Every structure is written in C-alpha cells, then in structure tokens.
Amino acid sequence: MAAKKTTAKKKATTSTRAPARRKTPRKAPAESTGLQPSDVLYDVEPKELAPIRARIEDEGGSVLAAYRDPLGGRALALAVLPIGKIEPTPFQRDLSDTHHKRLAEVLVKTGRFLDPVIAVTAPDSTGGFWTPNGRHRLEAMRRLGAKAITALVVADREVAWQILALNTEKAHNLKERSLEVIRIYRGLLEEDGSRAESSFSFYLEDPALVTIGACYEREPRFAGGAYHPILRRLERFSDDSLDDAIAVHEHLATETLALEEKVAAAVARLKEKGLTSPYLRSFVVARINPLRWIKGELPSAESVLATMKDRASRFNVDKVKQEDLARAGGVPDEEST
Question: Where is the composition biased (Basic residues) (predicted)?
Fold first, then answer.
C-alpha cells in the first residue's frame, strides 16, 4: 500500500496535463430548450421515483407532486419532510449565526416558507435526507420551532456535489472556498473512494484548493492566500483513485505548513528589524519562489516546496529595505488568516 501511494504522489505532482477548463454555454435562442408546461406532468409516475416516494413516506414525509424538471426532463418530487429528518450535507460552508437569525426574522414577518430546499437521500447508514443548499433556511425554520420543511427531492445523490460546486464559486474568500472543497472531497471519499480524482474536477474546481483546505483543517489561521497561486500552477487532478490522491494532498499540506513556519519566522525577523507592511508574508514568499525564473515544464510541487523551505530558512533580512516593501504587493497578511 505504501508503494502505491508513493506512485500516486509522483503522478499527481509531476503531471503536466492542464486542468479541464469550464465552457460557458452559448446563449440559446429564446424558448428553444426544455419542456412545455403541459409536458412536465406524469400520466403514470415513473419507476425511478418509487424508491424516493417510499423513502419520503417511510421517514414520515408527504409527497405533494411528482413531475419532470422543465429544463432537463428529469424526475423530481416536491415533498414536505419532517424537519428532524433532514440535515445539511457534512461538507458545506460553516453556519452563519447572523444569516440564519435574519432569515428567521423574515420568515416570521411573511408567515410563509416560500423557498423550498433541495434534498437528496442521505446514505443508508444514517437515513433521512441531506440538503446541499439549504443549511441556513433549515436552521431558521428550526429556530422558529417548525415541524416540517418543504423540499425538492432529487433521485440522484450526485446532484449534491454539483450544487456544492456552485456554492463554492459563491464563497466569500479563499478559506471558505478551500474548506468547502476539502469537505466535498471527504464526502466523496465516504461515498466511493475508488473513483478517479479527475472525474470530479468539476465539483472540486481546482486541485490546489484541496491541499489548501487540508491546511486550513489543521491550522485555521493559515495564510492560504500567499501559497495558493504557487500550488495552483503546480497541482493537477490525478487519474488515481480518490483514496490514493488524498494522500498526495495531505502530504503537500504538511509540506506547505512546514514552509509557512519558516516564512513566519522570516516575517518575524523583518518586524524585529522595524520593517512594516501589510504584505510582509507575500513579500517573503515572492522572494523565495523559484517559479518566477522557470520556463517550460514545471518541477513537482514537492520539490518546489522543498526549495522554498530551504530559501526561507536562509532568508537574509539585512538585505531588505523599507522601500523594497513599498514596491511589494500581493495578498495582505491580515486577509490571509
């Protein structure tokens, strides 16, 4: 097993295959796609919805309607679920107390819950349902003491990963984005770790976010903004299984955190010298980054991090002047923590 993971590490850190680029769909002619309103209704409910209906009813919920999605024609169920039977997916953004309390205030004023959450069946080991996009609405309803919540129930659990990918794009900063990505990754590992990492590139967006997310899991005040541009150039999604590929990201996270320790020591020495700037960390990282001078095929992420650790250990603060810092840019240190 150890030899297998070493091979996976080598493949993932030295591949030159560029990450897949997302294609923006062209604007289609007006009213040229999907179904007419009369086409979404079922004369007879399809067999694919039978397990969903059974799950909803077994969990104490009620199916209000079954219909075809007007865009893709896929089966959906509109249901009311017991609020105790639905939980947020375990791999999304942390709950915002301010946001869910404000939602509760609005719900009290309207007296109506008008924005159904999306739900998929949770793994059989836990039962119930997961919502990949309704954490704050769910918590607001719980705050109000609601017994039930309206949900669009989707038969394909993989939709949860797709919706989380959209949520990841809307996250406010690098820390939130990378934590969502690593949580998606760990959820995928629990679902089926034997599938190739590259097959989930859409959901994960950027392989460097997996590594940065693993760093934030271990060190919440990690300065990810200083290292993400470097890792983004070096990391590629691997064709190895998720089970093997996660070992690569965990290893790179360890190396990146070790580099951060040495960079933080150099930053401390600059401060002791009396030098001030909101870009001290980015300044040090830029000075020790070998990628500025490399053209053509890039070395592995592991070798670049090793080089940077060595340079950070030998960083000579006596050669740095305040005017050097004045010309520096990058991610302000306080925004990276």
Answer: 1-12
